[in-house]
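User: Peptide deformylase, Muriicola marianensis:
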Amino acid sequence: MILPIVAYGDPVLRKISTEIDEDYEGLDTLISNMWETMYNASGVGLAAPQIGLAIRLFLVDTSPFADDEELSAEERKQLEGFKRVFINAKILEETGNSWAFNEGCLSIPDIREDITRLDTITLRYQDENFVEHTETFDGLLARVIQHEYDHIEGILFTDKVSSLKKRLLKGKLSNISKGKIQVDYRMRFPLLKKGR
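Assistant: Predicted structure for Peptide deformylase:
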């Protein structure tokens, strides 16, 4: 089932999410719905807060990036077929070089900004079967995971832009929260007046 994606301005996007366990009701269905929702919106990642749930769950499928001719063959291979569920994730370490990349977000449509992040992360998480993993990711893969991880920490990519950029984006962000935007996927707008 395709779920509405929560738009910028909804308080759930600012909450630090809580951990879940294998008894979380309807988890398999939720994960299935999240995949369907993400693919319907042409996303490469989706976090539970983006569908209104403040739980530590996000998923990533970087396959669309594997077609990028600007990436090396090794990078494309790493991204191709990378599809994973992350539950109760915790970044243990961020290292490497800072690099900027143009990011966007399904909850903040039509806004893209260059965001600087470190290029390597070590992450502890559980998969959909609650098997624990500790892995190191780098490059574009690390970036997508960092972006989704920020969601479960109540952080949005627009928080990472300069003060000047924030001021310039203020009107656009306000319009998104009011539903004054055209998107081709289902969204839930926090400030949309009833009956409009």
